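Sharing a chain and its predicted structure for anyone who wants a worked example. Both blocks are below, sequence first, tokens second.
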Amino acid sequence: MSIKREKDKSRRKMSLGTRNTLVGMSFILPNFIGFAVFVLIPVVFSFVLSFMEWDGFTEMKFAGLDNFFAIFGDRVFKASLTQTLQYSFFTVILSMAAALGLAILVNQKLKGTTFFRSAIFFPYVASVVAIGAVWKAMFMKDGGPVNVALEAVGFAEQYLPGWFSSTDWALTGVIIVSIWRNMGYFMIIYLAALQGIPSSVYEAAKIDGASKWQIFKGITFPMLTPNHFFVFMMLTINSFKTFDLIFVLTEGGPGTATTLLSTYIYDQSFSYMRFGMASAASMILFLIVGTITVVMFRMEKKFSDYM
């Protein structure tokens, strides 16, 4: 009888374990199906397509590494890669600086800080189409508010930038709009981290006679290191895959002045119907972003071990 009872208990335990597993899988399965259909399968198909020649209508032909050779021999691809690196570098560094500066400002106990926090965060949730329309109007060469302001402070008319209509200034204009759009969201992240720093640390530094700059350099900035890594990584990934803002503002122009890797992939796919080359460019973009992400995680781990 005791053996039978033990067998019944083990069966109940097994059935309970199986039930818990099925319940867990039922929660995961919908998300996994969505991930597989909309992410995993397209990524695998894009990888396969990067070795094919296909225009979307005729039969696929195996091309080997021809797509990659063609891409690296393409002047537009080289320009888009260079411009993507420039765009990412300035957008990431300046967005981080702006977000941290704004977080420090709105962290002060002053009247109206709640309003300013909301106002600064608003561009991140605003429609990209609306943002593009507003900034295109502001950056108009003749009569645009930005150039009117520059002319008011002493810029001669012949030296006023053409912004989105100029090959020399278009990328700079896009970077400015990107910084303006990004800084609100990452300001919130920095602000939450700042409010987590114990006030006793600042009080002890003030008692020791530390200046505001010494407090920032020796306390505030180092204690935000995990947030620096997170913000840097998220901004880097976002900057490399930026498409909607570029498309609304300039469509990659004038010429190829603001063509980034994302817009280059779009053009190859839907303007020239070269899906093989577009997929090859996507794989290169994936490798760049993946490499940066791995390096950042390793740097963060080494820094954490050091600390």
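Comments welcome. The two ends are 61 Å apart (CA to CA).
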